[in-house]
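User: I'm new to structure prediction. If I give you an amino acid sequence, what do you actually give back? Let's try with this one:
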Amino acid sequence: MKKFSFDSVAHLYKHIYYKMPQSLKTFLGTLYGSIPIEKRYGPLYTHYLTLFRKFEEGDKQFQLDYLYNKILETILFAEEHIPFYQKRFAEYGVTASDFKSLDDLKKFPVTTKEDIKRHVEEMYSESVEKAVAYYSGGSTSSPTKFYHPLYTSRAKHKAYSVYTLAKGGYRLRDRAILLKGREAVDLKRDIYWDYEPVDNVLNVTTRYILSEKFPLIYKKSKAFRPKFLFGYPSAVMDFTHATLAAGFEPLPVKGIILASETVTEFHVRELKSVYGDVPVFVDYGHTERVVGAWRLDYSPYRFIGAYGVARIVGNEIVGTSMDNMVMPYINYKTGDEVEGEAEFYEGCDIARSVQHVRGRTQDYLVTHDERLIPLTTLFVGHYLPAKVVMHLQYIQKRPGYVTVRIEKGRGDADKSNILNGLREMTGEGITFDLEFVDRLEKTHRGKHMICRQYLDIEAIKKRKENIIAQTVGTKVKTVSLR
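Assistant: Good question. You get back a string of structure tokens that encode the predicted 3D arrangement of the chain. For your 482 residues, that looks like this:
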């Protein structure tokens, strides 16, 4: 199949596009967005969109055969092209010939984030497709560099998004308020948003939601006439809190889409109490694009088997990738845990669905003027090289001052580059101090704690809601989402 798309080329220059004046960006983005998606993403997009539908509608035997063949394809590629897996397979005494059934996947070694940080240059190959570097977000304690296939990855993931989001009523380029932390601020002009015409969304800067600037943000958001609120649960809840505090009418959206953080039934119930009985769609995935799942309202999470394989091992999601002929993942420990009942494919621990997924938490840092910055919005991969930094932890005891403790890896860290990156992402709102340590302490369950926050976040939120209420001259409503 021909591996070329306009999107894969345009994506390489997105940093230039984002810096353009809004008028030029609107012109070029609208022009590009008007091109049919099949043309932008190429034949691979159509292939995967058709595949997801076929797989989900297929009978049990078709699904089992497909899973087996795609896992075997991944193992064979790793065995033939990836030095890391060649060594690891030899250590475990396994080869691709040992994979005779789906249950045999458990015979193969696990891959961890630590492995990627230490051995990433031995874990990818460009023998089949060009590799493009990506970085994990800052909401984990271990920012990580990894690689995706230039053409396949984006086309496949876009098809996955279009297929799954339709379950919540979303259609391509439906108008949406995007609350996912991308910076869009012009302080001189009192602007805290920008319009992204390619996807037809209004990006709202989340760190100004709980501030006296919210009435401006709300007015712009309402004028945009969105059909959906789309963002991190923490940001969507903050937007909702601020709306109620100001005495504004909730936006008349047709649905809500939540992603990238843990979502509980509390979130779903309370959002429905404010916006009405609209669908609340929840997307589960991660930047590595190994596995993906979705849920609607209170239903279980359903894994899309044709996207990637999700084993449940000791309540943790352990994924094996499909179609990644650059940097394959075999038994990758995601760090995300499941709760409640799970449904499995016959004869193995590969999951069809699970009741709950517990992934990233919604921690905040507090600026000098008590603006709240969700850690999910911090993207620190570029400033914290994987070979230099193993893990990090934010510690805050007073507004505007944060100590970042960094567990050292190999090599020397550029302290000024790290500080500049952190200041850029937080809008100069926080004074950072760096501490390099040999080892960061873990929780009693052996996990790294990304944030030690000693400030009363709920009290700060309440004060900010009062400020919003005073700005518009209303009393804070007694309605609470907590």
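You can read the tokens as a compact description of the fold. Here is one thing that stands out. The domain at 6-156+288-294+299-358 is CATH 3.40.50.12780 (Rossmann fold).
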